[in-house]
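Why run this: before we spend reagent on co-expression, it is cheaper to look at a predicted model of the complex and decide which construct boundaries make sense. The entries below are exactly what would go into the expression plan.
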Amino acid sequence: MTKNTAVQPAANNRPNKQKVSAMRLKRCFPLYLMFLPGALYLLINNYIPMAGLIIAFKRVNWNKGILGSDWAGLNNFTYLFKTKDAWNITRNTLLYNLAFIVIGTVLAITVAILLNEIRSTGAKKTYQTIILLPYLISIVVVSYLVFALLSSETGFVNHTILKSMGKEGISWYTEPKYWPAILIIVHTWKTFGYNTILYYATIVGIDRGYYEAAVIDGANRWQQVWHVTLPSLLPTIITLTLMSIGKIFYSDFGLFYQVPMDSGPLYDVTNTIDTYVYRGLVRLNDVGMSSAAGFYQSVVGFVLVLLANWTVKKVSGDENALF
Amino acid sequence: MKRKASILLLALAMVVSMAACGGNTTSSSGGSTSSTAPSASTGSAAAGTSETATPAENDLRESSLVTLDVVTMASGKEQKDIDLVAAAMNELLEEKFNCNVRLTFLSFATYAEQTTLMLSSGSGADILPVYMIPLPTAANAGQIIPLDDLLDKYGAGIREQIGEYVECGRVGDAIYGITTGRDLASTQGFAMRKDLCDKYDIDYENIKTLDQLKEALVKIKEGEENVWPVAVSAGENIRNWGWDPLGDDMVNLGVLADMAQTTEVVNLFETQQYSDLANTMYEWMNEGLIQSDAVNTTEVSSSLLQAGTAFGYFTNLKPGYAAENTASLGIEIVVSEMIDALASTNNVSRATWTISSGCKNPDAAMKVLNELYTSPELGNLYMYGIEGTHYKVVEAGGSSNGQDIINYADGLDATTSGYRKSGTWLTPNQFIGHTWFGSTADYWDVTRKFNDDALKSKAFGFTYDSANVNNEVTACTNVVAKYHKALMCGALNPAETLPKFNQELKDAGIDRIIAEKQTQLDAWYAEYGA
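The model came back. Tokens follow.
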């Protein structure tokens, strides 16, 4: 199509251009139609709510309405930086997500490769189902599963494991130091099945010819994995990781709110930006201040996405970057 | 490099333009939120015109049927007969005001959260008691409306019933909340199961100190393998132990300590009283006297008692507490009073009925509210359900206020009744209603006397406005949320935690809050005398 327009003489450029664009519209109309629901979803769900950013700078009074309320300047932000809160929630959000990305990816790839080595179809299907099951469990149910393990009196860990080892029970819900590990384990357990399936699907799609050639060259199983499977997986790994990095400043609300059961002593290690905003709203009943925390999340998140994209571009070239 | 810069600029420009067009969208949504205000004023204007149109009849009926959402707290169990009761109430209200009500009951564990969301969104509640969130916060945010004019127009009955206590619902220049007719002071103590007291020969009436209580709890611990001596409610063990929290009874930022007989505002978490209490609880927790999952439980202590897995719980008491809870829980409850009755503004303003700013028809709301405070017929329906279905009359006219003495209808008890008999303390006015079987006939008179006789805090009547120290309050509230409840449950070691706790509070600016409270209190003394 671009070729067509380029061939047109300059003199009657204008009407033709219109004609062409009309033609293009007609030809691509079904595609635009397909794009429409997604665009509407983005507009309603992601763009229109951006208007709410204004609340962060207002002293909201519902009688005057949002626009009519007095401006508060940066006043809503000061409490964030008064204590270590801003630092804490930023650190938690970033480090947890980083850990999730690294551990989740490594585990998912490992399990996907192992799945591929299983020859019996029945066993393969069974394992796939078992691995995927936690992904489908509601986080509230998960929080009670964790509670069943960690409850200080009747929990499996204190009551059965530690007791049989002759050790004192641990008061899990008041000891912050264990929670980074607990949260990472729970999250990985819950989500790695889904990623495993994605990687497994890619592995299944790898041409068997490569493996045959490798075998002829005398490669053992390990060498096959290292020199055939992993390089073929690389584009999938990069795409999935980039997508995760794009969301590195979001946190899994259910995980951080439900699983620690809203226990106060754990806030330092379990508060992420999302839970902080939510608690701010329900406990303090202050929309302006919670919006300020939300605004802070948007700004830092924006900077991080740009940074991640820039890094990918530097490391692996334009084709892998998002924009 | 240039290209990259331009991409960055473009991205930034997009964000800015989003924010800008965001401005436009908010104006429309702002329009819809603020539309409640005009409609409110048109509502009153309409009422005004209808008044002028029919001045002679003094007609209180709305011109068209108004439906109001009435929200309050109950046990959290399913209330299957709500619609039945609402229909009976509507019969009365429709005839008198051409109003209908829709009833909503929220559970204790989610009450603060749910009402906050209702108030923020401006929907789901027209009339509701503001409880567990500070009244001034809701008032300053414009989530509830000032009631002075409405009280003058339709609330004569409320003023008559509540008297001078109406003033305690004042925030700044206006009255925003009306306290309920209930005990307006509180005694602190411990409530427990009578069967176990009898079994272990516990002289509950004479338990006056924590040490004496501990002796009793140890007996339970040793004798009953599967019973927790102390249960907590949704992570909260002790809310108050004889201090005046001066406005925020959940967070306690700056209080009058030791029965509030001084005029000096102090940091509660630095007082000897608090540290002693935290140490005692820590000791109890280590000895297995307190429910071990106290910090993260979402259960209410009384339901553990009902299930037979706990012995008792700390609570604020009032006359007839034991009888009321024996009836509502279906197990026999007795109490030990440990801290004498103290009346602070908080006792009054802790739970006040308000009209939300999302309410489209405040006039109708006030008429209904006034009726709830004054009409025994309507109040009894709301509090106890339908006669014959949910309760039966034991002695007609047996109560000293002329009402009946009632009990569960035949075949029903606390667990099988389709309408609550819990949380009645939060309904507008218990003084005009029936007396539950088991309470003394002069129960409501005793309660009024209890209110009058209680030791008054040196700051009784003073309301505090946190607007000037908003940021500090928010920061400190976050800190308190981390430690306070857990310390009161005995889940944290005070020796390590208290210094850390207080340091974080200092960083968050608690000293400014205390200074602000002191200034406002001093000004109040200057006006009204200490």
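The first strand of chain B starts at residue 66 and ends at 74. Residues 1-57 of chain B have pLDDT under 50 and may be disordered. Bring this page to Monday's planning discussion.
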